[in-house]
Amino acid sequence: MSRIEISGLSKSYGSRSILSDINFSMEEGEFVSIVGASASGKTTLIKMISGLASPDEGTVSIGGKRVDGFPVGAAIVFQNYSLLPWLSALENVRLAVEAAFPSYTAREQTAHSQRYLEMVGLGSAGLKKPGQLSGGMRQRVAIARAFAVEPSVIFLDEPFGALDALTRVTLQQELASMCSAVTKPVTALMITNSVEEAVLLSDRIHALGRGPGATLSSGFPVSIPKPRAASLLHDKKAIALKNRIGEFLAAGAKPSRRIIEAASQKSQTDVAMEIA
Ligand SMILES: Nc1ncnc2c1ncn2[C@@H]1O[C@H](COP(=O)(O)OP(=O)(O)OP(=O)(O)O)[C@@H](O)[C@H]1O
Ligand SMILES: [Mg+2]
Q1: Distance from CA of residue 203 to its chain's centroid?
Q2: If you ran DSSP here, which 8-state letter would residue 94 be given?
Q3: What is the sign of the dihedral through the CA atoms of 48, 52, 57 and 58?
Q4: Percent of the chain having pLDDT more than 70?
Q5: Which CA distances in Å does 28 have to 106, 124, 229?
Q6: Residue located nearest, by CA, to atom 28 of ligand 1
Q7: What is the pLDDT of residue 8?
Q8: How confident is the model at residue 230, as a pLDDT?
Q9: Measured distance CA(240)–CA(234) in Å, rounded
Q10: Rounded distance, CA 126 to CA 117, Å?
Q11: For 4-73+153-275, which CATH class?
């Protein structure tokens, strides 16, 4: 059982309140996204939920057990890939597989790692080092590494934030198919600054307001059947949902300089959603 319960989380840095009384829960197998503007406290929040940082107040429990350190059976994907540069793509995945499946023989660990690289379309790039891979390929390795340990919970902190819009769309679809391809249910919590990305992938979305002392909206369920194609974002239902989330994010918020600057690199609708 991987039900996640987040109760009364608050965090300040010095005298500055970042997050205030964050409460929500996730059912086993659910895909939940948190959307919010830059510097609203998203990474701070996912670090506390994944046990990588301590809250000032509040608790997190997974499967009824209080989180204290990174949970066993969980995996995390960061925005900046976080691969070991001196290891090949296959070795990066294999390192995690060795730790997760110590009873496998060396040959089984390699075959298992290779299978997950193949699932993200990198079956023939296993010998390449991260420096020889594109950003999109590196992020595929990071996703393969996370899923290869067959986690019950996966944390994703803006996994596609560093990618161009086209690569981002492809990887969103790959992530969705990885989630549905796994044999046991994986509970996924994703942080993103794109409302559209959240709508494409999630069962439920929470919006994080602006600080100081940012609070979380109640959940917006995404009742659109999966798998979802990017074209679905133009459906009435999806547009209405994006507008409702946009309204929460816009309340009292001004678009940040970073988001305005990002407009030159992204599709206008996506950026409009982020600003909204
Ligand atoms: N270790 C720290 N010490 C002091 N302040 C911090 C620390 N970590 C984060 N902050 C501050 O907390 C605020 C929230 O940071 P956080 O990284 O959680 O934002 P974010 O929503 O993830 O932003 P982005 O979308 O840019 O990644 C920022 O103002 C940041 O400067
Ligand atoms: Mg962040």
Answers
A1: 13
A2: H
A3: positive
A4: 91
A5: 32, 34, 24
A6: 39
A7: 96
A8: 82
A9: 10
A10: 7
A11: alpha beta
Hey, where are the domains in the chain?
4-73+153-275, 82-150
Q: Which two tokens stand for residue 193?
A: 């600054």
pLDDT in tens, 147-186: 999 999 999 999 998 888 888 899 999 999 888 888 788 9
130, 95 in Cβ contact below 8 A? no
* Lining residues, ligand 1, CB within 6 Å: 13, 18, 36, 38-44, 193
Asked if residue 271 has pLDDT above 90, the reply is no
Q: State which of 9, 11, 12, 13 you would mutate to test the pocket of ligand 1, scoring each by most atoms of that ligand within 8 A of its C-beta.
A: 13
At residue 127, the 3 state secondary structure works out as coil
Among residues 1, 38, 46, 3, the alpha carbon closest in space to that of 22 is found at 46
Of 9, 15, 43, best ligand 1 pocket probe by most atoms within 8 Å of the beta carbon: 43
Nearest Cα neighbor of 212 from 6, 2, 14 is: 14
Ligand 1 geometric centre to CA of 41 (Å): 5
